[in-house]
Amino acid sequence: MATMESLIGLVNRIQRACTVLGDYGGEGMSLWEALPSVAVVGGQSSGKSSVLESVVGRDFLPRGSGIVTRRPLVLQLHKIDGGSDYAEFLHAPRKKFTDFASVRKEIADETDRITGKSKQISNVPIHLSIYSPNVVNLTLIDLPGLTKVAVEGQPESIVEDIENMVRSYVEKPNSIILAISPANQDIATSDAIKLAREVDPSGERTFGVLTKLDLMDKGTNALDVLEGRSYRLQHPWVGIVNRSQADINKNVDMIAARRKEREYFETSPEYGHLSSKMGAEYLAKLLSKHLETVIRQRIPSIIALINKTIDELNAELDRIGRPIAVDSGAQLYTILELCRAFDRVFKEHLDGGRPGGDRIYGVFDHQLPAALKKLPFDRHLSMKNVQKVVSEADGYQPHLIAPEQGYRRLIDGSISYFKGPAEATVDAVHFVLKELVRKSIALTEELKRFPTLQSDIAAAANEALERFRDESRRTVQRLVDMESSYLTVEFFRKLHLEPEKNTNTNPNQPGPNADRYNDNHFRRIGSNVSAYIGMVCDTLRNSIPKAVVYCQVREAKRCLLNNFYAQVGRREKERLGAMLDEDPQLMERRTAIAKRLELYKSARDEIDSYEI
Q1: How far apart are CA 150 and CA 17, in angstroms?
Q2: pLDDT for 317 beyond 90
Q3: Torsion angle of the four alpha carbons 52, 53, 57, 58, in this order, in degrees rounded to the nearest 10
Q4: Which residues 6+ apart lie within 8 Å of 580 measured at CB?
Q5: How far is CA 109 from CA 85, 105, 438, in A?
Q6: Which of 362, 349, 336 lies closest to 580 in space, CA to CA?
Q7: CA torsion through residues 343, 346, 350, 354, sign
Q8: Using CA atoms, how far apart are residues 17 and 2, in angstroms rounded to an integer?
Q9: Minimal CB count within 10 Å: which of 72, 85, 326, 425?
C-alpha cells in the first residue's frame, strides 16, 4: 500500500515533469490539470503570502502594498530526507537557490520581466519548486489578490481581469480551493468565499482559512466562523496567526513564528479548545491528507486520461512520421517508398480515382476541336487567294487539264495551319500534368514532413514531363507533315469522276477548257481543297490525342521518376540525408510529442507500481 507521502510525492514528481515539458493547460485537459493542486485565493492584504510562507516554513515571497502577486506562482513542495532547503525555478533550471532572499528577488524580477515595472498582471505562471525536509509534498498556486477598484497605473479592467484569471484556476474540477479571509473583516464580504461559493456551491473542494485572528477588536472572536455557524463548509475552517509586521521587520524566522502561533492558540481562552486544529502546520497536514483522498479517488480517471493521451500521441506520431534511420540503406529505402507513395497518388489523378485527369480529356474534346474550327481556311481558300496561288503555281505556262501545282500549294498551306492547334494541345496537356504533379506532392501525406524531397521530386517529375512534351511535339508535327508529304489520291480521283455541276448547253459559248480561269473554276478548286482539308482535319482530330497520350500521359504513368531513381541510387549517404531534411518546426513538434509520450508512459508505469 502506498503511503500518503509517497503517493503525493509521486503526483508532485509527475506534475514537475509536466511543468518541465510545458504540458500545462492548453486544449482539453492535460495531465497536469488532471492531478489535484491547491489554488490559494484571497483578497488583497488578506494574508495569502503569510499563509504560504507559514506552510513552507520560509520567508520567500515579495511583499508590499497593492497588487504584489501579479503572475500566478505555481509552487511545488518536495519533501526530502535530510539536507538543506533549496529552491529551483523552471525558467532557470540549472540554478539552485539556497538563499531565500534571492528567491524573493528572483520572483520579483521574473514578474517584472513579463509585466514590466508596472501594476499590470499576466496569466503566464512562474514555476517554483522548493525542496525541504520540513514540508509536505504539495502543489500550491498563489494567485493575484482579488480587488474591488483599480488604482493609479492600472487599467479599469484590472478588477475583472484578476477575477477571470483566478476563476480559470478554481473552476477546474481537480482544483482544491484554499479560500483565505481576514478575521477582522465580515466573512459575508469575503471575496474568496464569494468566488468559492460560485464555482464550488457544494463546498466539497473548498477549505476556509481565517487569518489575522490576533488583530480582531478586543471583546470579539471568530468562533462563529471557525465552528461553521456563520458559513458552513464540508471541511473544517482553519485559523492562522500570521507574523506581525514587527516580526517581519526583525526577520523572525518561520520556525519561531510557527512556535509563537502554537503558543497563541494553546493559551487563547477563545480558541484553546480548537488549538489542535489550528495553525499553518495543521493546515499543511490537512491539505496533504485531503490530497491523498482525492488522488485515490481520481486514480482511475487519471489512468484513463493517460491511456487516452498515449493513444492520441502515438496516432499523432504516426501522422507526422516516426524518426528516420541514419544508415544509408534505410534512407534510400525510405526515399523510394515516399516516391512510390507520390506515384500512386499521381496515377490516381490520371486514372480517375482522384479529380484532375478529366482535364486532359477536356483538352481533346473541347480545346482541340475549338482551335481547329478557328483556323483561317475561309481566308486561305477564298476565290481571290485561290486564283493568286494557282496563277503563281502555273508560272508562264498555264495548266493544261487540272492545276496540280496549285492544288498542292493550297493543300500544303492549309495543312500548315494544323501545327498551331497540335502544339497547343501538347502544351495544354503538359500544363495539366505539371499541375497534377504539384497537387499529388501536396496530397501525399508521407511527403509533407520532407520539404527538400518534395522539391527534388517536383524538379525530377517536371524535367521528365519536359522530355515527354518535346517528344510529343515532334510526334504531332510528324503527323501534320505526313499529311503534306503524301496526299490521298483516291479523294481527287473521285472528284474527277464527278460530273460538272455547271452544264454548258449553248454551242456558241466556249467549252470547259476555255473558261478554266473563270470564277467558277477557281471556286471549284477552293471547294475541292476545302473538302480535302476537312478530311485531314477529321484525321488529325483523332490522331493528335492518340499521339499526345502515347508520348506524354502514358510515359508519365510508366516512367515519371525513372531517371530520379537512378540518380538517387548513386548518391552518397550525406546527400541522401539532406534529401530527408525536415521542417524544423515539424522536428520540434515530433521531439515534443516523443517527450510527452515518454512522460505519460512513465507516469502510467509509476502509478501502476503503487498498490493504491
Answers
A1: 37
A2: no
A3: 140
A4: 324, 331, 334, 335, 450, 452, 453
A5: 21, 6, 52
A6: 336
A7: positive
A8: 20
A9: 326
